[in-house]
Every structure is written in C-alpha cells, then in structure tokens.
Amino acid sequence: MTQHSLKTMGELRSIIELGNPILRQVALPILDVTDEKIQGLIDDLLVTVKQANGVGIAASQVAQSCQLMIVASRPNPRYPDAPEMEPTAILNPRILSHSTETVKGWEGCLSVPEIRGWVPRYQAIEIEYCDRNGKLQKMEMTDFVARIFQHEFDHFNGLVFVDRVESPQDLITEEAYQQQIQKSE
Ligand code: ZN
Q1: How remote is the CA of residue 153 from the centroid of ligand 1, in Å?
Q2: pLDDT tens-digit profile of 145-165?
Q3: Distance from the alpha carbon of residue 150 to the mean position of ligand 1, in angstroms
Q4: For the chain, what are the domain ranges?
Q5: How many C-beta atoms lie closer than 10 Å to residue 77's C-beta?
Q6: So which residues are the catalytic ones?
Q7: Is the pTM value of this prediction over 0.90?
Q8: Cα(101) to centroid(ligand 1), Å
Q9: Quick one: which of 7, 111, 6 has its CA closest to 61?
C-alpha cells in the first residue's frame, strides 16, 4: 500500500471571524509535523481555502492556533488577477530576509468578510519553513505571493490586515472594491 492511499480527503472547516479571541492569540510552533492531526488539518485547510475562494489561510482561522498556513495563489472571483501556484502548506516559518522596498496592495481576509484594505507589505521576502513532510525548505517570494505570506504570518502573531493599514480611510467595503477598484485595474 502506498502512503498516498492512506491519506483521507480533507473536509471543510468553519472559519472564525474578527471578534473571536482566537484570532488575537499568538500561534504556537508545531512540534510534530507528521502527527495525524496536523496532516488532517493541512488537508482540511486545503479544501477550506479553495471552497472559500481564498488565496491563503492560517490555521488560527479555523480556531487552531498553531504555526501552519496554506499559500495557494490562483485566480478566483475574489482575486481574479492572482498568479497560479501549487497550493503549499507552510509550517513553522521564519523570514530570513526581506526587501527594503514595500508596496501597497488591496487585501481581504476570510475572517474579515466584506472589507478590503490598502496594505503595505515587503515587495520580496526569503523564508525558511518546514513542509508537510517535515523537510526544511527555503523559498523566495515576490509581489502578490509575498503579500499572501506576510498576511498569513501576521495571523500567527494575532494580527489582521486592518491593523496594518496606514489610515482608516484605506479600508473600503467589498462592494466598493468590486465596483471601483477591480474595474479600473
Ligand atoms: Zn487573513
């Protein structure tokens, strides 16, 4: 029997929203990446982020306060211009280096429905992380994918994108975003 055949399909988990104190907790590192519960959580997050038209999700968003995120950039109705990549589980990451340059872009969050913010992020980062097989990996990320990582990394520290806007005026509704911003891009 191959290892693959032992894997179960992921299941949809419900996403908690801003106001739930778990979103404000600091996430703990994962001690045993190969643990069945962690592997199941990874599968569930992969399904959940896709179903919700997300491009990333942190485990704390399904009320599991541990250092696990999925980065899964792909075009979808919420982010039609997102670049395509293989959905990647990132565990216990750290940022090794980053550009001095920051860029602003529109972000939303599955835990902050109906709001978008104009958020500054590093344009490029280099990260080190543990993959789902327990192997240490390095990755360079730029632009939108770097933005996703930094957004999810903030969740590990109990931060959400509304904490990162430079002015409350940089927050707009989803509807205004769809009507004004997306059409003009
Ligand atoms: Zn988020």
Answers
A1: 9
A2: 999 999 999 999 999 999 999
A3: 10
A4: 3-184
A5: 7
A6: 152
A7: yes
A8: 22
A9: 111
